[in-house]
Amino acid sequence: MEFTSILFYVFSLFFVGSSFVMITSRNTAKAALWLILTFFSAASLWLLLEAEFLAITLILIYVGAVMVLFMFVIKMLDTEESTLRAQFTRYLPLGIFVSLVVIVQMALVLNAGPFDLESVGMPEQHGASYSNITAIAQQLYTIYVYPFELAAILLLIAIIAAITLVHRTQVNSKKQNITEQINVQAKDRMRFASINKKSKKESK
Amino acid sequence: MWQSFVELTHQLIPWFNGSLADILIIVIKGLALIFPLIIMMAYMTYAERKVIGFMQLRIGPNRVGPFGLLQPFADVFKMLFKEIIFPSKSNIYLFLLAPILAFVPAVAVWAVVPLGEDFYIANIDVSLLYVMAIGSVGVYGIVLAGWASNSKYPLLGALRSTALLISYELVIGFVLVTVVMVASSVNLNTVVERQSGGILNWYWIPLFPMMIVFWIGALVETNRAPFDVVEGESEIVGGTHVEYSGMPFALFFMAEYFNMIFMAMLAVLMFFGGWHSPFEGIPFLEGLFAFVPDLIWLLVKMSFFLFLYFWIRASFPRFRYDQIMRLCWKVFLPLTIVWIFVVALMTQLGIGPWF
């Protein structure tokens, strides 16, 4: 057995194991952490496929940004176990149906036609001089530049839409005008009063 | 000598076509980097207390050893022998995982840092992205510490500092994009190589505003004064560290200092020519300083930035939280986006001082 196949089995074990624990874990924070481990194992598998740009982007975006926001939400959630598990069986029939559909679809895809294991074969090994990021960039910015830019514009619109949907002007919110605060001069806040000695003595 | 050592390990551990020997060599390389880093971090705490002491007309630590030079070791042993206290209703696994998650990325980013010409642990093609990806994992240390402590000040500190960290990661990312465009590479080695040829060829001149933005972002990312809202002693006691004692706290502390050293290193690599001598291309001085190894130049430049941390900490009062946020989203983000456009146009049209 080659060393890379040992690595593959180790990472796959971590991948499958952590995703299984992620699903079965009752604590939401722990589930999120297991999901992060799953992402890391997936990234390691991609590294074995010489897709180092994709692997690092996976970590950068999903682990570095998306999951942080997940943790952020989880921290503010009320994670009482009894309420979480109260209506667990209510959606069971629907869940079974959806998972069956997914299983059938995957079986159909993997067992037939161009995705069959025999017809795909091993991906080509490029060696140390291969640069994944250059290969992707050459495709992305020449042949697929219009789909790429369309996707970028779609994402931008999605961002703006999300912000406008959530952001309502609050009526009674107190706001601080920071520009005004920063531009404050000493003479606006402080007044020098000249007190002559005579009046001071009299007051005593 | 190193080559013969590599061949020797390959002969001793021949399994898997030498893959196991390669792993052992990587581990040895890593240890050879981590031990000097730990010593550096220990003496940074000493330097910080001395520098700030002198700036505030005090003496600083001077009791342990000559000039207080053994003070860091005294601190380390104090930390080691302290009792580790677990809050009674905290989640103990996550509570202990948090400092580990803060510390490991802070060390792991050093794997791709070029310390000299052909002197690194790994030279990967996407090293700049690797640095950003692994650096962003460090946020989990703070998130988990705040959540697992089951206490209000840690939670508050974690909430506001995570929001801050992910906001400023954007800014730093945009700044690095401009550097990548100018250097036309995401490999740290190539970025440094493009800056060869004396002090005028370093990127701090064409990208001067970006350098300033980067440094302020670095201060926020490493939770340093004047942006140290994760602790903010006068506001929320010790922030996420409130419930931590002994070695778990020491791990947080070490992670912060490792990150500081790393950010200083990144600033040098990105904007100050990395390991290149500042006298390259100057007729007389170049020959005079030719004997200095490139690692020394790197460390000298880095030490300046480390000093800058202490200098800034001694000089500025703490920012208010909403002001830091405003600075990020309303000042730095538009500025960096405009600069990305400017740099993109200039590199495309071939104008400007790109070397």
Report on the structure:
The complex is a heterodimer of chains A (204) and B (355). In chain A, 73% of the residues lie in helices and 0% in strands. With 204 residues, chain A is mainly alpha-helical. The radius of gyration of chain A is 29 Å and the shape is extended. Chain A starts with a helix and ends with a helix. The mean pLDDT of chain A is 82. Chain B has 355 residues and is mostly helical. Helices cover 66% and strands 0% of the residues of chain B. The longest helix of chain B is centred in the first third of the chain and has 37 residues, at 19-55. The mean pLDDT of chain B is 85. Chain A binds chain B through residues 2-3, 6, 27, 29-30, 33, 36, 52-53, 56-57, 59-60, 63-65, 68-69, 71-72, 74-75, 131-134, 176, 178, 182, and chain B through 16-17, 19-20, 91, 93-94, 97, 124-126, 129-130, 132-134, 136-137, 139-140, 143-144, 146-148, 155, 158-159, 162-163, 166, 169, 186, 322-323, 326.
Class derived from helix and strand content of chain B:
mainly alpha
> Structural class of chain A, please?
mainly alpha
Query: Shape of chain A from CA axes?
Result: extended
**Order of SSEs of chain B, N→C?**
HHHHHHHHHHHHHH
Give the helices and strands of chain A as they follow along the chain: HHHHHHHHHHH
Give the end-to-end Cα distance of chain A, rounded to a whole number of Å.
98 Å
How many β-strand stretches of chain B?
Answer: 0
Instruction: Return residue spans of chain B where pLDDT drops below 50 for at least 5 consecutive residues.
Output: none
Mean pLDDT level of chain B: 85
Largest interface between protein chains, with number of residues from each side: A-B, 30 and 36 residues
Largest sheet of chain B at a glance?
Answer: none
Count helical runs of chain A.
11
- For this entry, what is the oligomeric state of its chains? heterodimer
Number of helices of chain B: 14
